[in-house]
Design brief:
Distance between the termini: 103 Å
Strand content: under 5%
CATH class of the largest domain: Mainly Alpha
Low-confidence stretches: 9-17, 57-72, 74-79
CATH superfamily of the largest domain: GntR ligand-binding domain-like
CATH architecture of the largest domain: Up-down Bundle
Number of strands: 5
Number of domains: 3
Helix content: 55-70%
Radius of gyration: 36 Å
Largest sheet: 3 strands, antiparallel
Order of helices and strands: HHHEEHHHEHHEEHHHHHH
Mean pLDDT: 78
Shape: elongated
Length: 302
């Protein structure tokens, strides 16, 4: 008995002989198969007429279209020389660094209070980043002593107690005057002139809009004095404490910016006159008064 190739029996025979794909193709109507052959022929003809890809590009055909993935040398050739000279490369900024800076400043300024819980999921939503850079920032803040891990409960802002204040200023009184002593033994004219004009442009009363800027200048002033020391270990020790110093400064100097400006300018003028013993005494007095004020603030506000 002959086999009719248009019957279901023939379709089953071809399924076993050529496989499922071939069987489905033969099940399609004759007109559809013919149109498919015409379309394939047209695509091959169109591709043969297309020009070869330019040098330095890669053919990445997709859905019957020919695309080119431009390489840097090809892109450079397409941009004018003057424009290439004018453009400045963009420095990549890690999201973890941004999260760290944002959280660090919030802790230093007191926006995140001591003991306040820190949830990585909530912080990620507020900062507009994923949880990974937030976790990275929290670990770095923990290493700096600004946060403390609570295991599965997350992190909390580290407390700032009276003992912390006493220990902090005990070290500051030891380290900061060393910079003045170094200037007395080895005068650095450039550093002396820089310190003399450190607060140029600031006048009493300091406007509320410039308070944050003044706090940054205050911190830079003390760092500059310590930087006059030739002892690298002293400079490194001070750098480790800098976040805690800034944190305490925002607590102690609140509502006291004008008074601290007078104290800073007195120290700077004594250094400018090369009256280093007076400058050293004024610096120690300034630190002691800051310590007492900070302890008072903690006792009153917790």
């Amino acid at each position: 008995m002959g086999v009719s190739w248009g019957s279901r029996t023939a379709c089953r025979v071809r399924y076993t002989k050529f496989g499922a794909q071939r069987a489905r193709a033969w099940r399609r109507p004759r007109a559809v198969r013919a149109s498919g052959r015409r379309r394939d022929t047209a695509d091959r003809s169109r591709n043969e007429r297309m020009p070869a890809p330019p040098t330095g590009a890669t053919n990445t055909g997709e859905c019957g279209r020919r695309r080119f993935r431009d390489r840097p040398d090809t892109e450079a050739a397409l941009i004018g020389g003057d424009l290439m000279k004018a453009l400045v490369p963009i420095e990549p900024v890690q999201l973890g660094d941004r999260a760290f800076d944002s959280l660090r400043m919030a802790i230093i300024t007191g926006e995140l209070a001591p003991g306040e819980p820190l949830r990585d999921r909530q912080l990620a939503a507020v900062l507009g980043v994923s949880r990974t850079p937030v976790r990275e920032a929290l670990h770095r803040l923990e290493a700096a002593g600004l946060t403390a891990s609570r295991g599965r409960a997350g992190w909390v802002v580290s407390p700032f107690t009276e003992d912390d204040v006493r220990e902090l200023f005990q070290v500051r009184v030891l380290l900061e005057p060393v910079g003045v002593d170094e200037l007395a033994e080895h005068p650095d004219e450039k550093a002396i002139v820089e310190i003399e004009h450190f607060f140029d442009g600031y006048e009493r009363p300091i406007p509320a809009a410039r308070t944050s800027d003044y706090f940054l200048r205050d911190n830079a002033f003390h760092t500059r004095i310590v930087g006059c020391s030739r002892n690298k270990r002293i400079r490194d020790m001070y750098a480790v404490m800098e976040s805690h110093i800034e944190r305490g400064r925002h607590l102690a100097a609140e509502g006291r910016a004008d008074e601290t400006l007078d104290e800073h300018m007195a120290i700077a003028h004594a250094i400018a006159r090369r009256d280093f013993p007076t400058a050293r005494a004024l610096l120690v007095e300034h630190l002691r008064s800051g310590e007492q004020l900070m302890l008072e603030r903690i006792r009153n506000h917790g």
